[in-house]
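Please describe our next protein:
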Amino acid sequence: MTDSEKIIVGRLNPTTEATTKGDLSSFTEAETGAEVLENAVDAVYEYSEGYYQKLLWKIDLWLLPLMWFSYGTQQADKNSLSTQAVFGIREDTGLVGDQFNWLSTSFYISYLVFEAPGNWLMQRVHTGKFLGIAMVLWGVVVLVVAFAENFTHLIVLRSIQGALECTVTPTFLLITGSWYKSREHALRSVIWATSNGGVNIITGVISYAIAEHAQGNPNGITAWKAISLFLGALTIVLGILAFFILGTPREVRWLSEDEKRAAIARIVENKTGSDRKQRSEFKWDQTIQAFKDPQIYFFFFVTIINALPGSANTVFANLIFQSFGFTPKETLLKGTAPSFAVGIVWFLLCGWLSMKKPNVRFYLMMFSLIPAFTGLIALGLLPADLKWTRWGLYIMQSTGTLPGLYSTGAAIGGQILRPEDAPRYIRGLTASGILYGVDLLGMLLWRTYYIRENTRRAKKIREMGLSSEESERLGRLNAENDMTDQENIHFKYQF
C-alpha cells in the first residue's frame, strides 16, 4: 500500500505509524471498512443551508429556553443562602462564628468530590433524563431547607445539594457541544449562562414580594423559609421538563430521524466528534494524555483563581450591599438586581462579539477582569460614607465571572470574606481584586500557548503537502473516530 492510500482516521490500525501521526492524505473505505464513518463526514453536504438554518431555529427553540431557566434556577438555588442570610436564616438556625461560611464551603467540597463519579455516570445514561432526575432531587433538598433548625441540618442539606448539582454545568456543556458548531458555542453558552443573572433577578423580585408578605404577616411563615419552598418547587417542575425534553441529538424525541442525522452532520466540522453513537468505554491512554496536556493546567489555574473571588462575592453579595446602608429588601432591588443586569448585558455582548469575530474569546475574558479588578481594589480604599460610589464599584465585579468558576476555588473562596471583617470585608474584597489580576495573567499565557500550537500544526501540515480542504476532511474523520485534539494534528484551537 502506498502512502497516498493511507489515512489517519483514529485507532483503526494502531500498529501503523501513520495512524498515530496523522500525516497521510487520502481515505479509502476498503482500507478501514469505515463506511459509517465516511458517511458521517459526507452527510454534511446532503442538506441545503436553508434546511440547516430551519433546523437550527428548531433546536434553539426547544433547547435554549429550558436550558436558560434550568441553569438559572440552579444558580438561584445555590445563591439562595445569600438572600436568606438577610432575612434571618442565621438567627433562626443559631449560626455563629464562621458557620455561615462553612455552608458555602461544604457545598463546593461535596461538589468537587462527586464531580468525577457524576460525570462518569452522565456519559453512560440518557443525558436529559439524568439531569432531570438530579434536578428533581436537589429541588427536594432546597425545599427541605425550609424545615432546617440548626447548623447540622443546614450543612447536611447543603452537602447533598452540592453532590446533586455538580453535573449540571458539564451536562449543559455536553449538550451544547453535541448540538452546535464551534463558532456557535460561545453565544449559545452565554445565552444559558446569562440566566445566572436573569433568573436571579426574577427570583429576587419574587423573593422581595415574599418578604413583603412575610413582614405583613408576622405570625405566618418566615421569609427565608418561604423562599426555600418557592425555589424548591420551581426546580422540581423544571427537572420534570428537562427529563422529557433535554438530551443529545441521538436521544431526543422531538426530531425526526432525518433531522437527527442532519443535526449530527452539522457539528462534524467541529472536529471534536459527533453524537452519532454513545461512547461508554474508558480509555486510559487518553487519561494519561490529558495529564500531559498543558491545557489541563491552564484550565485548572485560571478556573480556580477565578472561582476564589467569584464564589466569595456570590455568597456574601447581599451582606456586602447591606453594609453599604441598604435594608434587606433594598439589597434585592437596588443591589443584586442591577448587578445581575450588568452581568447579563456584558455576557450577551461578549457572546455576540465572539461569534462575529474570530479568536477574540481570550481578549474578551481578559478585558472582563479589568473592571472587576479595578472596582474591588478601589472599594477597599474608599471611606465607608460613599454609599453610591461603593455600590457602583461593587457592581463592576459582575463582569469578572465571565471566564468561569468552580469546585476547589469556590470551596476556598467561601472562606475569603471572614465574619470578623464584617460589615465592610475590606481584606477579602481587596484579595478578590488581586486574584482577578492574577487570573488575567494566566489567561494571557494560555492564549499564547494556543497561538504557538496552531502555528506548529500549520507548519507540519504544509510540510506534509496537504491542501486546506484535505486537512479539513482528515480532521473531521479523525474526530469521528474518537481521536483527541492532541492526537488530531488537523484540529485547530479557537481562542
Residues 44-480 form a domain with the Growth Hormone; Chain: A; fold (CATH 1.20.1250.20). The two ends are 39 Å apart (CA to CA).
